[in-house]
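Quarterly update from the structural biology core.
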Amino acid sequence: MSKLQRGRRWMLVSGAMVAASALGAAVLAATPRAETPPPGLPSTTPEATATPTAASLPAEPTPWPAPPPPGHGSVPPAGDAPFGRVAAEPARVRTGDGDCLNVRYLPGTTGQPRVAGCAAEGTLLWLTGDPVEADGETWRYALGMGWVAARYTEPDPGAVRGFGPFREALVLAVAETWPWTQAGRVTGNGPTWRGAWLPFNAAWGVARPGPLSPSGRYLAFSAWEGEGAGDTVLVGLEHGTEHTLKGAAAVRWGPGDRLLLRLHGACDGCAAGLAWTEPPFETVVPISGPVGWNAAWMPAGDALVTVEAGRGLVVVSLDGSERVIPLALNESESIDQLVVSPSGRAVLAVPWAGDVRVIDLETGEERRIARPIDVLRGGCGGTPGLTAAWVDEDTIAWHESMAPGNGNGIVVFDLATGARRILPFISVVELRSVGDGLLAFSVSDAGGAEKGTGIAPYSSWLLDAATGEAWPAVEGIFAVWR
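Predicted structure, tokenized:
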């Protein structure tokens, strides 16, 4: 089998780069909605940390648009999304010669000068859909990866399945017709609740960094067509209520279901360009310091870490105070992703190109981890969700999608030993820690679904970072595990 040659995979730019109109406090509008709440959701509101006093904003009732506003070009789907377990067969790579198994964009070896990835001997694959005959081989689709020659795989019926330590997942399904998304609650026995179809596409770049709040109680999305384009709609899944935050776009959920917002008309990284709100979302508080769109919440929810050109990392408290950690960046090292460690002591910084960095927020000490991408050449990139995470204080993970050779996939890196494991998942749209040494991630197999039958276009996975075993747990994306 030939060695891997990897081509670039371009995605939509992050939806945090939003349209803008007028700078200032956002106006909150609340309207109840007739919808059956999902059973089992806790009704308590997360405890809030101390924050500056914020003026209450007037409520402006706005009806939920049904039918959808002009420009959508479609109406909500007539039925519900399927939700439930992913139909896939576990199998191991068995090449017989110890070499890796090429993973391809299309079934066959012709018409595609590059392969998508290369799965090492023993890698757990999840095969799905109908077999396809091409170029003298029988091809199967490996979820999250691509097409593989079936004769180099061996069934593994004893592979890990299920929900791990979790009892349920709140997950999003994307309709085939633009632009509808539905939330559903799923247990090991199947779906137990479905929400109404909402007029946004959770798989598109504007969803970053994931519409569902950490608790799963709320969902935030922005309308990008018709009246209210660019405003943020907050859906309370517990009681079926909706609020519209006018003049602000959602950027990132944080602890206690706090939500970072970008105020319309503000430039990226400018003072008072961002704001925050929290349940019950009756106030929006501008942040006086300069904060970039790729800011990361501190674990206590009382401050944000951001990158400011010419200064470095800046820890900006919600009360406006700040602390600077110098950080030198060259032109190719624009920081794409920032994630703070569980203790709040360090930050993981993943640039578009160049070394991954782990920076101590107390001492400023920096550790660099070499990557195969030293320069970013042309194009644009990004994913709907964040694709970097801390497994624990000693283990980090990020997704590589533009590396040469066989370097693409989810990279799990042990800070103590320097050991690096690469799992060749190519189409990852979000990655995060869910505790107990597990990572949760979502993949898009929409391209594979177009070339074969019986392939779920989106699925949510669990990954044991210690063993490298990953399994598709439920259909849909952005699963919140409980």
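Residues 1-72, 374-382 have pLDDT under 50 and may be disordered.
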